[in-house]
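From the thread on structure requests for the teaching lab: each student submitted one protein with a one-line request. Submission from student K.M.:

"Model ABM domain-containing protein from Sphaerisporangium dianthi, tokens only."
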Amino acid sequence: MTTVELTRFHVAPGDVSRLLAARPAMLADFRADRAGFLGAWLVRLPGDEWLDIVHWRTAGDFADSRAKGANLPGVRAFFEAIDHVVSAEAGTAVEDEDRASGTDGTA
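Reply posted by the TA:
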């Protein structure tokens, strides 16, 4: 089953444009360097907080990615725009995108 990484973090108001500018390169680095990376969604929350929802093929792929840290310039630039991490956790997806959107006829 797919592993879902949920990272909530704070970005100072003056660093939002830097965070958003760094996002495409971070995603490109993940696609090139992180086995099992399936996709990510960045959500802006109230109070200068953000939520990054990242889908991984397996928990092992997620663990391998965490071990690499900010090993590439695009990842590093994105991480450097973050003031501090509020919380980080992972779970297992119980439905896929097709099922959640009803395109498989079950919703």
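TA comment: The mean pLDDT is 92. The CA atoms of residues 34 and 64 lie 8 Å apart.
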